[in-house]
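Re-run requested by the PI after the first attempt was lost when the workstation crashed. Everything re-entered from the original request form. Ligand of interest: FE2/S2 (inorganic) cluster.
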Amino acid sequence: MTVTYRWVQWNRHKRRYDAVLAAIVAGYLVTFIGVGTMTHAPPREVGLPVLAMRALATLAIVLLHVILLIGPLARMTPLAAPLLYNRRHLGVTFFLIALMHGVLAVGYYGAFGVREPVSATVGGHGSFGSISGFPFELLGLLALLVFFVMAATSHDFWLSNLTPRVWKAMHMLVYVAYGLVVLHVALGALQSERSPAYAVALLLGVALVAGAHLVAGMREWRRDAAGARAADGRWVDVCSIDDLQERAGHVICLRGRERVAIFRYDGRVSAVSNVCAHQGGPLGEGRIVDGCITCPWHGYQYVPDTGQSPPPFTEKIATYELRLEGRRILLNPVPRQPGTAVDPVRIPTRQRDEASPS
Ligand code: HEM
Ligand code: FES
């Protein structure tokens, strides 16, 4: 979390992550170019610029798949959380690699004629009506422009200035750009490729990304449908105090409403929106750390009974009223304005002793 903005907030975890990422990038490029040089001996030799362009392109498309898979994976298993935590670094690295590929392509295919290189490469030839002659470079350029906007606005500075809703909607364009990249490859490199292996790899990639999103969406939908409670009354019976673990979240689905995260801590129970104000992370899958609900995605924190980030931070989430009847927790399904203080339910000491699941 930040109050003033720093371009990169390093910590030990992020340094280690970036070192591993840099090693993978360097290892991939060196291996691709090295193996390419050895296997393309004269007379089938391929020049270094073309090899480098292909090395950067294939690395970029692999990284793009990884980036697109992190979201659904994080919804399926907490093991993917460290990848999610550093997705921005991965995204910017991907953009720089794709940019280098585009710059090399323009320099190699467009710099030697009389025309200006960019238009000579992306608009100088081909026909929109032909599959094998489609100016596929234009699709690459369009995708690159979208990735540029996303990389340039990836910082939290833009997230809070554009508002999370606009920022999120803008970043959904990644799927449009992904489609453009798939077409760029299908109408470009694959047209001159005799081996079906590349087409199969591309199809598998698309199937993997689509399948992972579908599975993650279905799982959430099923979980919501199975656990959803009608939310038409003033008070809804949502769970027992025995269902709540000390300092851990418990997610409640209310039909037609946002999910609610319920936390039990120090003999009290509070309920807040399950949606983190940062990038919509699932707060109910987080824990209470230092007295604050802590988002499992990037660690934003909220005071349980006010839904406000501890000063000097300013993020706010909706809070909910609770009531205790015997051992049952009842919830008023109408959310209070984000940041509104609501009295937590206090568990009587006698009941606390009876129910101590963790
Ligand atoms: C200004 C933007 C771009 C231009 C001008 C461009 C141009 C090209 C060209 C000329 C090729 C054929 C290279 C060859 O085989 O000789 C190519 C292939 C490719 N491009 Fe792009 N590209 C651009 C952006 C992108 C982006 C953003 C991606 C994202 C991943 C991408 C991914 C690929 C891939 C995967 C290939 C196939 C590489 C191979 O042959 O193994 N390109 N591009
Ligand atoms: S989504 Fe980033 S901290 Fe919650």
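Saved to the shared folder this time. Residues 236-354 form a domain with the Rieske Iron-sulfur Protein fold (CATH 2.102.10.10).
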